[in-house]
Amino acid sequence: MRLTADNRIVCHHDKDTSRTTGQPKLISETTLQDLKSLECGSWLGKQWSNERIPELWEVIELLPIHMELFIEVKTRKEIVEQLLEEIQKAKNPEKITVISFYPEVIETIKENSKDIKCNLLVAFEYRDISTNEIIKQVKKIEAAWKKCNIANNRYFSDINKWNPADIWLMTNEFVANQLSTLEEATTLETLNAKLQKYYDSGDCIGVSLKQITQGTGNWDLINNQGSLKDIDKVQFRGIHGTYDSIDFYIKWGVGGKDDIQFRNTAGDKKLQWQGEIKGVSAAQGKVGGGILDGILDKLGHTMIGVKNQHQRLKNATNPNSRQHAQGMSKTIYDKAKVHKLSGFKDDVNLISEIANESHSWRYSNYINYKLLDLVKSMSEEQKHKFVQAVYFYAASQSDLSSIHAKIK
After folding, report:
1. Are the C-beta atoms of 249 and 239 separated by less than 8 Å?
2. Average pLDDT for residues 2-22, to the nearest whole number?
């Protein structure tokens, strides 16, 4: 299906009429009346002479009501509004399925009418290509990012916060002629603009894959130019934790699992405190302690010191350190008492129990209490800005993250 210059939907595979009529007219720049004046059947055979380019509604009315109809949209989402009107007028809308190679078409239809059946088309052209050649192409993208990230003062700690692609979908044309142009980018802004351009032309998109443990996965287009972030859904809605656990949570959404979890994730030996966005079916992104400190600093708050004071924090929370063990146990006890965490017993004998906790428990909880102190010192507006900055960075949706698709 294609849209005419006067917003009528016609059934025509090619974007122009050269092959079917012998006259090179772009469908999108020609009115329905002018298209109807063209004869489009003779190229196929004499028995088809004097045929005219049909409108979608003509085809729908021609087919038996019990027959399944698959409508392939050959344009971008500008056709959707008119297409929905045509489908709603049909006698058998439940027999109609819209198919398209463009995710934005499927997304826009589903946003406006969830009952209409849709299928996303994916094309693969076979090429006998070696694993080393594939790696070589991906490394070109990584090299372009690395150069631009340095130019932007190492804004990202790793490439996944810029673009978390597990796979890259590229046309042969892109690999042969356009991929090398990414190396021309000098900043993250110019690199992102190039990737946006190649997505718009249907040549390249990175796709992030998430393990789906329950429910059905959805395809989302992230950081698409012109699309606004859903700021309202990400708000500070409380911080909570229990005395016995190494986990603290900041509530960012209204769902039951809409939390950012903070904890040590590397056990006693390595000690690595970070945040992770939790989701209904899969974790949606991580943010390291050093990045969190950077976010706090940019927002004008005191840093926790997870990166630049990492060794000091490790030493201070080490239960085997004679110099620090007892003093840190008292500090953790006092913090838990002030914040009145669930499971805490107001008993000084608890200090000796804290002294016997693992290094991971002491390290994680001490930093969690520092985070709790910071958050509680913020105004409501500051809390919202902090949570949004953490969430969008961890979710690869910061201001300098690039366009990508996510299956989640």
Report:
1. yes
2. 94
Q: What percent of the chain shows pLDDT beyond 90?
A: 60
Q: What is the third-level CATH fold of 2-120? A: TIM Barrel (3.20.20)
Strands, E, within 245-373: which ranges? 248-251, 259-264, 273-277, 285-288
Intervals of CATH 3.20.20.190 along the chain: 2-120
Provide CB contacts within 8 A for 390, sequence distance 6+.
250, 260, 275, 287, 292, 295
CA dihedral 323, 326, 330, 331 (to 10 degrees): 30
Strand order in the sheet with 259-264: 239-241, 248-251, 259-264, 273-277, 285-288
Dump pLDDT digits (tens) for 28-75.
999 999 999 999 999 988 898 989 999 999 999 988 888 999 999 999
Angstrom distance (rounded) from CA 324 to CA 347: 21
Whether 9 contacts 53, CB under 8 Å: no
Supply 242's token pair: 């229990």
* Cα–Cα distance measured from residue 116 to residue 114, given in angstroms and rounded to the nearest whole number: 6
The token pair at 206 is 């990175």
- Taking the CA atoms of residue 220, residue 224, residue 226 and residue 231 in that order, the dihedral angle to the nearest 10 degrees is 60
- Residues across the chain: 408
Residue labelled with tokens 């992104």: 285
CB 108 within 8 A of CB 118: no
Q: Please give the full DSSP string across 238-279, using - where no structure is assigned.
A: -EEEBSS-S-EEEE-SSSTT-EEEEEE-SHHHH--EEEEE--
CB 399 within 8 A of CB 215: no
Residue 77, SS3? helix
Would you say residue 212 has pLDDT above 80?
no
